[in-house]
Design goal:
- The chain is of the alpha+beta class.
- The chain has one domain.
- The protein has helices at 35-40, 120-131, 146-154, 167-171, and strands at 12-14, 22-29, 48-56, 61-74, 81-86, 89-96, 109-113, 117-119.
- Strands 2, 3, 4, 5, 6 and 7 form a six-stranded mixed beta sheet that branches. Strands 1-8 form a two-stranded antiparallel ribbon.
- Strand 4 (61-74) and strand 5 (81-86) form a beta hairpin.
- The termini are far apart.
- The chain binds zinc ion.
Protein backbone atom coordinates (compact mmCIF):
# COMPACT_ATOMS: atom_id res chain seq x y z
CA UNK A 1 0.00 0.00 0.00
CA UNK A 2 1.63 3.30 -1.00
CA UNK A 3 1.95 5.65 1.94
CA UNK A 4 2.18 9.34 1.25
CA UNK A 5 3.02 10.44 4.77
CA UNK A 6 5.98 12.61 3.88
CA UNK A 7 4.98 14.00 0.54
CA UNK A 8 2.47 16.83 0.16
CA UNK A 9 -1.14 15.67 0.04
CA UNK A 10 -2.49 15.58 -3.50
CA UNK A 11 -5.07 18.26 -4.28
CA UNK A 12 -6.93 16.03 -6.68
CA UNK A 13 -7.36 12.29 -7.00
CA UNK A 14 -8.36 10.47 -10.11
CA UNK A 15 -9.37 6.95 -9.10
CA UNK A 16 -9.24 5.69 -12.68
CA UNK A 17 -5.52 6.33 -12.56
CA UNK A 18 -4.90 4.33 -9.38
CA UNK A 19 -2.11 1.84 -9.86
CA UNK A 20 -3.15 0.09 -6.66
CA UNK A 21 -6.51 -0.33 -5.06
CA UNK A 22 -5.64 1.21 -1.74
CA UNK A 23 -4.03 4.46 -0.72
CA UNK A 24 -3.12 6.05 2.58
CA UNK A 25 -3.16 9.83 2.74
CA UNK A 26 -1.49 11.23 5.82
CA UNK A 27 -0.28 14.76 6.26
CA UNK A 28 -1.22 18.35 6.83
CA UNK A 29 -3.52 20.58 4.84
CA UNK A 30 -3.92 24.35 5.30
CA UNK A 31 -7.34 25.19 6.75
CA UNK A 32 -6.99 28.68 5.28
CA UNK A 33 -7.48 27.27 1.79
CA UNK A 34 -11.07 26.26 2.61
CA UNK A 35 -13.33 29.25 1.88
CA UNK A 36 -16.58 27.86 3.33
CA UNK A 37 -14.82 26.84 6.54
CA UNK A 38 -13.16 30.27 6.81
CA UNK A 39 -16.60 31.90 6.63
CA UNK A 40 -18.03 29.62 9.32
CA UNK A 41 -15.36 30.27 11.95
CA UNK A 42 -13.53 33.22 13.50
CA UNK A 43 -10.06 31.85 12.89
CA UNK A 44 -8.41 28.85 11.29
CA UNK A 45 -5.20 28.85 13.25
CA UNK A 46 -3.82 25.41 12.72
CA UNK A 47 -3.56 23.23 9.70
CA UNK A 48 -5.76 20.19 9.29
CA UNK A 49 -4.24 16.83 10.14
CA UNK A 50 -5.39 14.27 7.62
CA UNK A 51 -5.10 10.52 8.10
CA UNK A 52 -7.30 8.72 5.62
CA UNK A 53 -7.33 5.32 3.99
CA UNK A 54 -8.87 5.08 0.56
CA UNK A 55 -10.02 1.75 -0.82
CA UNK A 56 -11.20 1.56 -4.38
CA UNK A 57 -14.65 0.03 -4.75
CA UNK A 58 -16.41 -1.08 -7.88
CA UNK A 59 -18.04 2.36 -7.99
CA UNK A 60 -16.23 5.11 -6.20
CA UNK A 61 -13.91 4.81 -3.28
CA UNK A 62 -14.36 4.02 0.41
CA UNK A 63 -12.74 6.63 2.64
CA UNK A 64 -12.03 5.80 6.30
CA UNK A 65 -9.99 7.62 8.88
CA UNK A 66 -9.74 10.79 10.83
CA UNK A 67 -9.20 14.47 10.26
CA UNK A 68 -8.53 17.00 12.99
CA UNK A 69 -7.95 20.69 13.45
CA UNK A 70 -8.35 23.46 16.01
CA UNK A 71 -10.70 26.27 15.04
CA UNK A 72 -11.63 29.57 16.67
CA UNK A 73 -15.39 29.76 17.17
CA UNK A 74 -17.73 32.29 18.77
CA UNK A 75 -18.61 31.30 22.34
CA UNK A 76 -22.40 31.32 22.72
CA UNK A 77 -22.10 32.46 26.35
CA UNK A 78 -19.67 35.38 26.24
CA UNK A 79 -19.35 35.95 22.46
CA UNK A 80 -15.56 35.72 22.82
CA UNK A 81 -13.39 33.43 20.77
CA UNK A 82 -13.08 29.86 21.94
CA UNK A 83 -10.60 27.37 20.50
CA UNK A 84 -12.37 24.13 19.66
CA UNK A 85 -10.71 20.89 18.60
CA UNK A 86 -12.75 19.37 15.79
CA UNK A 87 -11.77 15.80 14.95
CA UNK A 88 -14.43 13.86 13.10
CA UNK A 89 -14.08 10.25 12.07
CA UNK A 90 -14.55 9.97 8.34
CA UNK A 91 -16.60 7.15 6.89
CA UNK A 92 -17.84 7.81 3.43
CA UNK A 93 -18.07 6.63 -0.12
CA UNK A 94 -16.58 9.14 -2.54
CA UNK A 95 -18.17 8.77 -5.93
CA UNK A 96 -17.99 10.72 -9.17
CA UNK A 97 -21.30 11.97 -10.54
CA UNK A 98 -20.10 10.40 -13.81
CA UNK A 99 -20.13 6.94 -12.26
CA UNK A 100 -23.82 7.03 -11.59
CA UNK A 101 -25.61 5.91 -8.44
CA UNK A 102 -23.64 3.83 -6.03
CA UNK A 103 -24.60 1.65 -3.12
CA UNK A 104 -23.66 3.16 0.20
CA UNK A 105 -23.08 0.69 3.03
CA UNK A 106 -24.76 1.35 6.36
CA UNK A 107 -22.89 3.90 8.51
CA UNK A 108 -21.32 5.48 5.43
CA UNK A 109 -22.19 8.85 3.95
CA UNK A 110 -22.01 9.63 0.27
CA UNK A 111 -19.63 12.27 -1.02
CA UNK A 112 -20.45 12.91 -4.65
CA UNK A 113 -18.12 15.01 -6.75
CA UNK A 114 -18.32 16.44 -10.25
CA UNK A 115 -16.05 15.20 -13.00
CA UNK A 116 -13.20 12.70 -12.76
CA UNK A 117 -11.21 14.18 -9.91
CA UNK A 118 -11.96 14.08 -6.21
CA UNK A 119 -10.90 17.35 -4.60
CA UNK A 120 -9.40 16.33 -1.28
CA UNK A 121 -9.67 19.80 0.33
CA UNK A 122 -13.38 19.95 -0.51
CA UNK A 123 -14.03 16.57 1.06
CA UNK A 124 -12.08 17.52 4.20
CA UNK A 125 -13.86 20.89 4.35
CA UNK A 126 -17.28 19.22 4.13
CA UNK A 127 -16.44 16.87 6.99
CA UNK A 128 -15.13 19.69 9.21
CA UNK A 129 -18.22 21.83 8.57
CA UNK A 130 -20.47 18.91 9.53
CA UNK A 131 -18.48 18.37 12.72
CA UNK A 132 -18.63 21.98 13.98
CA UNK A 133 -20.43 22.18 17.33
CA UNK A 134 -23.88 23.78 17.04
CA UNK A 135 -23.43 25.81 20.23
CA UNK A 136 -19.73 26.34 20.86
CA UNK A 137 -18.89 27.37 24.42
CA UNK A 138 -15.83 27.78 26.60
CA UNK A 139 -15.40 24.51 28.45
CA UNK A 140 -16.08 26.19 31.78
CA UNK A 141 -17.88 29.45 32.49
CA UNK A 142 -14.82 30.65 34.41
CA UNK A 143 -12.95 30.73 31.08
CA UNK A 144 -15.52 33.10 29.60
CA UNK A 145 -15.16 36.86 29.42
CA UNK A 146 -16.85 37.74 32.73
CA UNK A 147 -17.24 41.42 31.94
CA UNK A 148 -18.97 40.54 28.70
CA UNK A 149 -21.31 38.08 30.42
CA UNK A 150 -22.28 40.74 32.97
CA UNK A 151 -22.87 43.28 30.21
CA UNK A 152 -24.92 40.84 28.12
CA UNK A 153 -26.90 39.89 31.24
CA UNK A 154 -27.72 43.54 31.89
CA UNK A 155 -29.01 43.82 28.32
CA UNK A 156 -31.12 40.69 28.72
CA UNK A 157 -29.14 38.95 26.00
CA UNK A 158 -28.28 35.86 28.02
CA UNK A 159 -31.10 33.37 27.96
CA UNK A 160 -31.79 31.46 31.11
CA UNK A 161 -33.92 28.35 31.50
CA UNK A 162 -36.91 30.43 32.64
CA UNK A 163 -36.94 32.50 29.50
CA UNK A 164 -39.63 31.51 27.04
CA UNK A 165 -38.18 31.52 23.51
CA UNK A 166 -41.59 32.52 22.14
CA UNK A 167 -41.89 35.58 24.40
CA UNK A 168 -40.50 37.71 21.61
CA UNK A 169 -43.46 36.74 19.40
CA UNK A 170 -46.02 37.87 21.98
CA UNK A 171 -44.53 41.33 22.10
CA UNK A 172 -45.24 42.07 18.45
ZN1 LIG B 1 -17.21 32.06 26.65
Amino acid sequence: MPKMAHSPLPERLNFQAFPDRDLVLAGQMPADSMPRLRKAVISTGSSVTVDLQLVRERHGCRVDGKIACTLGLRCARCLGEVQVRVSPHVRLIACSSLEGPTETPEDYDLHEYEGHDLELARLVEDELLLALPLVPKHEDISLCDQGMIAWLGSKGRVSGPARNPFAVLKRS
